Write the structure tokens for this entry.
Amino acid sequence: MSFRVDAPQARTFAFDSGQLAFDLKRSNPRRDSLFAKFPLKFTGLLYGSGDKTIDSFGYMPVKSPISGKLRSRFVITDAVLQNLGTVAGASTLITPLQALVGQDFLDQASFVAALRVTAGAGLTDPLQKSIVKAAQTPQSWYALTFNLELGSLGALAGRAGFVANLVFAWNPGAGSKFFVGLRLPGSTGGKREISLQGVIKLVFKSIDLVVGRNEGRISYVLKLKNIMLKFLVLSIPPNGRTEIILFGDPAGTAENNQLGWYAAYVKDQ
């Protein structure tokens, strides 16, 4: 809340996510929720006002029943037009596109439609893709972050734990989709891979969060699919698939601190 000293009755209220506090002891998770059935530890709230994307935090995308892409805005600025002048064949579009400077488009379809009307026949498919990419700006978003303890690294590492991070992000407003992301120790840039000693990579083809239903019980499974080691042009295993399955207690115990897992390897025929 803020107000002018000479007009204290004219108060202005604003939402400041940085001042939020969470009381987990007084918070009761739903019985069949992911938080109740998976050993997650809540760590906080992230907020992006358009200056940062959720991808910049290094989370690998996870497929889930609720996941999708966070919404973007499309705005042509003077800087976009200036950079467009360096693209081959785009110089003739700068003058007509000045009519769109400052206009805010909340979806790509309406932005592309305005581009085609304004630019006319000079707008080729490659130029359209370049302009869309340059004008794309993330909308504001919120995200809840959690730690997922995967166990220890063995006796040689003492009591050091191997901790992953899960994030659930959304845009405010109706019809929002969720972004579900996973960050493992050693993963960077949102890529589905972990760098080992700089030259070896542990690569995942996909990561899925699956909801299971059996005899009235709901369970959650995190699948790391088609895992392989890559060294330069070599892939190990060369002719097979490896998957790791992580799961919590489907009974949802009060402690909720146990994570089960198993791995499987299938050799291609």
Remarks:
- Residues 155-160 have pLDDT under 50 and may be disordered.
